Amino acid sequence: MRKPIVAGNWKMHKTAEEAVDLAQAIAPLVAPSLTSCDVVLCPTYTSLGAVHGVIGGSGIGLGAQNMHWEGEGAYTGDISPAMILTSGCAYVILGHSERRQYALESDEMINRKTLAALAAGLTPIVCIGEQLEQREAGRVEEIVIGQVRAALEDVEVDRAPSIVLAYEPVWAIGTGKTATAGQAEEVHALIRSFLTERFGREAADAMRIQYGGSVKAENAEELFSQENIDGGLIGGAALQADSFAAIVKAAK
Ligand code: PEP
């Protein structure tokens, strides 16, 4: 019922030239999957225009990795929704755990960004996830649902289906430790049930929840076959065309 969505988060990797090469290698490999899976590439800001030149019109989506919530102003080093939109983006990753950790982004900032993305016509990919100590202390539900609730404050029901959530347990990002399919599905089901309470069944059933955290070709199929897992947000394995394409293929 929900079309899966697989997004590659290239983080602070690849110059514009390297990003073009990677996009060129990925495009033909994922083309056959585009009818059954949305595919999004998220290079760094300086490569957005160049990558758009490669994938524009191909059906592959382009996403930024962050943005400011204001339309313009004295925010040195920041970038606005209109700037990424006019670079060809339809998507923007918000609240990635690395932004929460290194740029001290709060739930409130992520909520402002989410509302600004929706207002600009961008699809936000809103990241949530617990840290290892929080999991060990039995606080997964409290942390993750708290983050979802805060990020989606003031979102109206009719906008909810265009939001993508990415559940990324922080302990699984870039560590090679993937949540088991069962662990991930358990949290995705909790998120879905919160969304049902918050927006009603119809909207909640339409919302896609990606899993992220050391997804590779070898574990993607089992993760993506879970009822409430609608594709993935991929870091390390998105930096090689073959491994990214194999993950896309696993999402049906
Ligand atoms: C990410 O950065 O969103 C991510 C999931 O990274 P990795 O796949 O490398 O764990």
List keywords for this structure.
binds phosphoenolpyruvate, globular, alpha/beta, TIM Barrel, eight-stranded parallel β-barrel, about 250 residues, 11 helices
Structure report:
- The protein has 252 residues and is an alpha/beta fold.
- It has eleven helices and eight strands.
- It has a single domain (5-250), classed as Alpha-Beta Barrel (TIM Barrel), CATH 3.20.20.
- Helix content is 43%, strand content 14%.
- It has an eight-stranded parallel barrel with strand order 1-2-3-4-5-6-7-8, surrounded by six helices.
- Helix 3 (81-85) links the parallel strand 3 and strand 4 (91-94).
- The chain is globular, with a radius of gyration of 17 Å.
- The model has no long low-confidence stretch (mean pLDDT 97).
- Bound molecules: phosphoenolpyruvate.
- Phosphoenolpyruvate is lined by residues 9, 168, 173-174, 212-215, 233-237.
- Poorly predicted segments: none
Shape: globular
In total, the number of strands is 8
Order of helices and strands, N to C? EHEHEHEHHEHHEHHEHEH
What is the CATH topology classification name? TIM Barrel
* Main CATH class: Alpha Beta
Strand order of the largest sheet: 1-2-3-4-5-6-7-8
* Superfamily (CATH H level) name: Aldolase class I
How much of the polypeptide forms β-strand, as a percent range?
A: 5-15%
Structural class: alpha/beta
CATH architecture term: Alpha-Beta Barrel
Ions, cofactors and other ligands present here are:
phosphoenolpyruvate
Share of helix, binned:
40-55%
Discrete helix count = 11
In whole angstroms, the N-to-C terminal distance is: 11 Å
Radius of gyration: 17 Å
Describe the largest sheet: 8 strands, parallel, barrel
Taken together, the total number of domains comes to: 1
Mean residue pLDDT:
97
